[in-house]
Amino acid sequence: MNEDANLAATRLEDEADEDTFIPTPPTANQLAWLRDHLSEQELSLGSQLRTFREQEGWSHEQLASHLGLTIEALDRLSLAGRPRKDRFAADVRAIAAANAVPDLQLMQLLRTVESRAAFIGSPAARRIVAAARDHDDQTLSPAEVRLREANEPEQPEDNHR
């Protein structure tokens, strides 16, 4: 902390009374709780990070390592809002700078999630999945297995067995 911040914090403590609220940083458990709850919100960056992690079949720790972050830093990054489409590059640079993440790496990760989401719903994806049915599932990545499952037509249950 710089000297001005220390002085301001000291003044707050000296002047504190029952009506003064002095915020404290969240604990690691509180950050993890926030990450988990916000990752369900499509407007949070956490939802895209979770999607990427699941597509890759990675743990939370593996994603943190990939981005060069601690678990706590990744949890903080997850709390950011999603970059706006019309200001994507500027928003990603700002989010990356605030969280000590290489901006190009974060941009690539977010564009990968968007590309995969767009592809999954396309007719080309259904054709690829149909062609892939002849291949052994052991050779498919977790993302490819999910793509296959998402695009397979539902089979009616056979209750006559």
Spell out the key features of this protein.
161 residues
Describe this structure in words.
The structure is a single chain. This protein is an all-alpha fold and 161 residues long. The chain has a domain at 28-105. The protein has helices spanning 3-15, 28-38, 45-56, 60-67, 71-78, 88-99, 103-120, 123-132, 142-151. α2 packs across α5. The protein is elongated and about 65 Å long. The chain starts with a helix and ends in a 10-residue tail after the last helix. The mean pLDDT is 77.
Brief overview, please?
With 161 residues, this protein is an all-alpha fold.
Straight-line N-to-C gap: 71 Å
- By secondary-structure content and strand pairing, the structural class works out as mainly alpha
Using DSSP, what is the number of strands? 0
Please give the share of residues in helix: 55-70%
The topology string of helices and strands comes to: HHHHHHHHH
Largest sheet data: none
Poorly predicted segments: none
